[in-house]
Every structure is written in structure tokens, then in C-alpha cells.
């Protein structure tokens, strides 16, 4: 397969990936990293098409050479930036844009020299450097990375080196290296570019799908408004402590509280003000809790606090601190300052508890606090002692 056929295959492959992704994402919200990656692939497809006409006489060689590599460097830079974005580095533009401009200037300078070997060296080194940047982005967080990410990082780095070596050998050893002729090195480099197109393309899409699955799993157990576990997430956090309660040791406490008269906030000031109030209450709770404690939103304005290895009296003290803090702290809603109160029920997990019996008991305590006038704490009923034989 000659060089022009390989270039055309690279252009067609990138265009096919972009077209498939366009129809798949049509009408859907697109993540920022995916949008950046798609633009990078489009530029690369245009670059390889332009380079197909280089030296054909259809277009001026200067225009096709510099324009083709400028598009290529821009596309590779955007693709590298998309990988850095998936690695959590959102400020990649401050480094990648200067790198793209520098690569274009260096290649333009090499073109002015009018030496094919120098142009080949500049193009190969810049291309290899961009792919090494992709490999570095994939290797970020290596210790916690999934196996797919590690495999992509290693493979991309090896192929990027092969691409760069092609340019070095073209200048240093124009007749070949060892038993390898320059033509063989050229084919190896072209094959590496084709493999890089496939590996980084499908690899990015697989990593993006994996990210979406993780996000769905996270949202399934998280209240996105307040950034705390929802009912499902809180019950999942509670499960191991229910099992530990069957063993002797320091008990684990559970506090359930309800925001008093919350409906008036929504009625008087609107639902956005209600969201502000709930976020403020959650923040006040967090400031009174340990790192090991857990707050979750059960339903509506009912919340639960899981206090591991906490006896009942200590749990009552923590609940009182939270109640008092909420009572004396005005909350700015945008339209007014409001004062809120909460009613709380407190209990500890018992060895014979199920989640049904546990929440039935603490809910009864919460209802007792409400019936007593709200803005107070009620302790759950103590266990009934076993009858003496």
C-alpha cells in the first residue's frame, strides 16, 4: 500500500468515526470532552485529505504541506486536550494552544529550509509529541486507573515513539538503520499512525462510555441538588452498620429530622428559595459532624444522620448542636432572611433491628417531637426488657 492510500485511509477512518458519532449523539447533550475530541478528529480528517493532494500538482505544494500539517497539529492538540479533560485537567488549553502554534511555526520554518529530511523530522517529532501527550493524559492517575486506560497509555506511547523515530532516521540515517531500509521504517510509521487513529479513537469512546456509566451509578445514589446520598444511597451506607450492631461494642446512632413548616418557604418565596434553605441546612449539619458521619436525604425535607460508634447520649448532644445552630442562624434566600427550625428523633441501632424496625422506631420519636411543638428532639422508646423466667 502506497503512502497516498494510507493517507486516504486515515482521512476516511477519521471521517467515519465522526459521522457515526454525529448520528449517535444527534439531539443529545454532548459532554465537553467529547465535543473537543470530535472537533479534533474532524481537523485530522481534513488534514489527511489535504496531505493526499500534496505533490500531486493539483494544489501548490507549499499550501498543501503547511496547511495539511497545521490542520493535523490542531486536530492532535484538541484530541490530546480531550484526553486531559477526561483525566480531570480542565486547564489544558493554556498549554495546548501554545504547543499547537509552536508546532506549526517549527514546521513552517522547516519548510522554508527546503530540505525534505528536515520537514519530515519536524512533522514526525511534532506528531509523536502530541501522541505522547495523549499517552501522558491516559497515564494520569495510573495507580487508580482501570486496565483499559493503562493499556491505552502504554500502546499509545510505544506507537508515538515509532512515529517520531521515522523522522529521526530520515535525517540521521537516510540509507536505513541496520537491516531496516528507510522504506520499511516509513511503512512502520504509517502503520503506527493508522493504529493510533483506531486505538485512540475507540479507546476514547470506550472511556467516555465508562465515564457515563459511572455517572449514572453515582446519580442513582446521590441527591444532585444537595450533593448528599439519597434514600437508596443512605440505606447502602447504613447496611454494614446494621450488620455490625449484632456484635458487642459501641453502638451506632441514627438521627432523623424534618424541617419545620417548610411549605411556607415554597409558598411565600418560591421553590428556588426552598432549595437555598435546604442547602444551607445541609451545610450547617456538615459543620457539626465528623468525617465518618453521614447525612442523607430520605424524602422531601426529611433527612437522616448516621453516627457510627456513637452512644445515645452523645448522639443527643450532636442533635442538639445541630438543632440550636439551625434555630439561631438566619438563611438568606435572595428575597428575605428566614429562620428555620427542625424536629429530630434519635435512636441507636439494636442487635435485633431490621431497617423497618429501626426507622419505625426513630420515626415515632420524630413524630413525638413534632406533636410536642416542633423545634425539639425526642429520644426513641427504650427496648422492652426481656421477661424473667
Outline the structure in words.
Helix content is about 65%, strand content about 10%. The chain is an alpha+beta fold. The model has no long low-confidence stretch (mean pLDDT about 85). The longest helix is centred in the middle third of the chain and has 39 residues, at about 180-220. The protein has helices at about 5-25, 30-50, 60-85, 95-115, 115-140, 145-170, 180-220, 230-245, 265-270, 270-290, 310-330, 355-370; strands at about 220-225, 230, 255-260, 295-300, 300-305, 330, 335-340, 340-350, 375-380. It folds into two domains: about 5-220, Rhopdopsin 7-helix transmembrane proteins (Up-down Bundle); about 230-380, Alpha-Beta Plaits (2-Layer Sandwich). The strands form three sheets. A five-stranded mixed β-sheet has the order 4-5-3-8-9, sandwiched between helices. Helix 1 packs parallel to helix 7 (about 180-220) and helix 9 (about 265-270) packs across helix 10 (about 270-290). The chain is built from twelve helices and nine strands.
Amino acid at each position: 500500500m502506497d503512502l497516498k492510500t494510507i493517507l486516504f485511509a486515515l482521512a476516511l477512518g477519521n471521517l467515519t468515526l465522526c459521522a457515526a458519532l454525529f448520528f449517535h449523539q444527534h439531539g443529545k447533550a454532548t459532554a465537553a470532552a467529547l465535543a473537543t475530541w470530535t472537533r479534533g478528529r474532524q481537523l485530522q480528517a481534513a488534514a489527511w485529505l489535504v496531505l493526499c493532494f500534496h505533490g500531486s500538482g493539483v494544489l501548490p505544494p507549499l499550501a498543501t504541506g503547511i496547511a495539511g500539517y497545521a490542520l493535523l497539529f490542531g486536530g492532535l492538540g484538541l484530541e490530546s486536550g480531550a484526553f486531559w479533560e477526561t483525566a480531570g485537567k480542565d486547564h489544558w488549553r493554556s498549554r495546548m494552544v501554545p504547543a499547537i502554534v509552536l508546532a506549526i511555526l517549527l514546521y513552517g520554518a522547516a519548510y522554508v529550509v527546503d530540505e525534505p529530511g528536515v520537514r519530515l523530522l519536524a512533522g514526525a517529532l511534532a506528531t509523536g509529541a502530541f501522541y505522547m501527550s495523549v499517552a501522558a493524559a491516559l497515564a494520569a492517575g495510573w495507580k487508580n486507573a482501570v486496565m483499559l486506560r493503562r493499556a491505552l497509555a502504554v500502546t499509545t506511547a510505544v506507537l508515538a515513539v515509532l512515529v517520531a523515530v521515522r523522522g529521526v532516521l530520515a535525517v540521521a540515517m537516510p540509507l536505513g538503520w541496520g537491516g531496516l531500509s528507510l522504506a520499511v521504517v516509513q511503512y512502520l510509521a504509517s502503520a503506527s499512525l493508522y493504529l493510533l487513529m483506531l486505538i485512540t479513537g475507540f479507546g476514547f469512546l470506550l472511556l467516555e462510555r465508562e465515564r457515563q456509566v459511572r455517572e449514572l451509578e453515582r446519580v442513582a445514589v446521590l441527591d444532585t441538588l444537595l450533593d448528599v446520598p439519597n434514600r437508596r444511597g443512605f440505606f447502602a451506607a447504613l447496611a454494614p452498620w446494621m450488620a455490625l450492631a449484632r456484635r458487642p461494642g459501641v453502638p451506632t446512632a441514627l438521627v432523623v429530622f424534618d424541617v419545620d413548616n417548610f411549605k411556607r418557604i415554597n409558598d411565600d418565596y418560591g421553590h428556588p428559595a426552598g432549595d437555598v434553605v435546604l442547602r444551607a441546612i445541609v451545610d450547617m449539619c456538615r459543620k457539626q459532624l465528623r468525617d465518618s458521619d453521614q447525612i442523607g436525604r430520605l424524602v422531601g425535607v426529611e433527612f437522616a444522620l448516621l453516627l457510627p460508634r456513637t452512644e445515645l447520649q452523645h448522639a443527643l448532644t450532636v442533635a442538639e448542636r445541630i438543632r440550636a445552630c439551625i434555630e439561631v442562624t438566619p438563611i438568606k434566600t435572595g428575597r428575605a432572611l428566614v429562620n428555620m427550625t427542625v424536629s429530630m428523633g434519635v435512636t441507636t441501632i439494636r442487635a435485633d433491628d431490621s431497617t423497618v424496625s429501626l426507622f419505625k422506631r426513630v420515626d415515632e420519636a420524630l413524630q413525638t417531637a413534632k406533636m410536642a411543638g416542633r423545634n425539639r428532639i425526642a429520644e426513641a422508646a427504650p427496648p422492652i426488657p426481656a421477661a424473667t423466667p
